[in-house]
Amino acid sequence: MKLLEFNREKGVYNFEVENITSEFHAHPAVEILYSESGRMQIETAASVFHEVSFAVIPANMRHRIISENEPTNVLLMECNPGLLQKQLVAEQIELVNGVYVETKRRNRRELMKKLTRWVLQNEVPITLHNEILVCLDYLNSTSSDYKQMMTVLKSSINLSESRLSHMFKEEMGISLKKYLVWCRLKRAFQGVVEGRVNMYHAALESGFYDQAHLSRAFKQLLGIRPSIVYNSRTVQNLTGE
């Protein structure tokens, strides 16, 4: 796997992988996929798309990807869906039933780079609601367990646990507990690809009980085994070693 961009602060993660055969999964990031050969298969709960060259899958939509023996560019973006929608419409990309799929082969590599630059060079918040922004800032900076996290957030935002949980799920489309796991995964991934720790220590430092706990969460949110991602080639591509 070739890592092209990994920026937790901006919420943009771009990589190129040779083979993807994922299980059904969902995560709180918009996923944009490009395959030059146009042989991807994308499955959602409602549809199966064959011979796909480019696709946009919204955050928190359960989906499955099959792209074998060819490089596939994967761009994950955590940003306000309304602002991203405007960028896509400007490129004549409009989601139908929540998904956009192209079966006609077009060179979308420059578009992938353009969208990445747009997030990196601009302030593109996930949400405009201050209470949720406080939650996100804390979740992205802590390895606390759920109970500790909720204690801090209730005090900071002055809302009950039930009200805060409902507001977060309504705004983000995912529960606070699952989003906490998502943040732990990002932190663990960053530690490994920067070469600071191995996967075992990354799991512990990020708040997982052990490596098996991390592996289960990884597969649930990203649909693949972490061993496909956490390898020496990934580290070398990021660090340039």
Summarize the structure.
This protein has nine helices and ten strands. With 241 residues, the protein is an alpha+beta fold.
Description of the structure:
It is a single chain. The protein has 241 residues and is of the alpha+beta class. The protein folds into two domains: 2-121, Jelly Rolls; 130-239, Homeodomain-like (Arc Repressor Mutant, subunit A, Orthogonal Bundle). It is 42% helix and 20% strand. It is built from nine helices and ten strands. It has helices at residues 81-90, 109-121, 130-139, 146-157, 161-172, 176-193, 199-205, 211-222, 232-239, and strands at 2-7, 12-17, 20-21, 30-34, 40-44, 48-52, 54-57, 63-67, 72-77, 100-102. It has a six-stranded antiparallel sheet. Strand 1 (2-7) and strand 2 form a beta hairpin. Helix 3 packs antiparallel against helix 4 and helix 6 (176-193) packs across helix 7 (199-205). The longest helix has 18 residues, at 176-193. It starts with a strand and ends with a helix.
Quick tags:
Jelly Rolls, 20% strand, 42% helix, 2 domains, 6-stranded antiparallel beta sheet, 241 residues, Arc Repressor Mutant, subunit A, alpha+beta
